[in-house]
Amino acid sequence: MSREQQIPLSEAPPLYVEKIDGPVSALEVPQNSSFQSPLPPPSQKFRDIPVQAYCPSCGQTGLTQLDYVNGLLVWSAVLLLILFGFIFGCCLIPFCVKPMKDRKHLCKNCGTTIGYYRKLESVFGY
User: Rounded to two decimals, what is the model's pTM?
Assistant: First the structure.
């Protein structure tokens, strides 16, 4: 726009100014409102038993359902048994031992995977 085509200040729309009494915060929540955050807790610790967890898929909070999956501990035990000569089927025993398996935590409502409990991490603490 050139200087000749600029809109004069007298024709510009008026400014909107609202007077606010007192300090205002963007994070302010009224005292009498029932505000619930839809976000889950920042870190969820999963264990080898069902835990109370938030499902981001369906938005429900409740106890999880466990599914047992073969993890690194099971496969390490199988490898060790093969190395020690347990070849004729005995090396497959760790696949049948539930306490050695990892746990997958599922939502009871929709079946979405919420998290994992890795057995090997709990054994060595890393």
Answer: 0.58
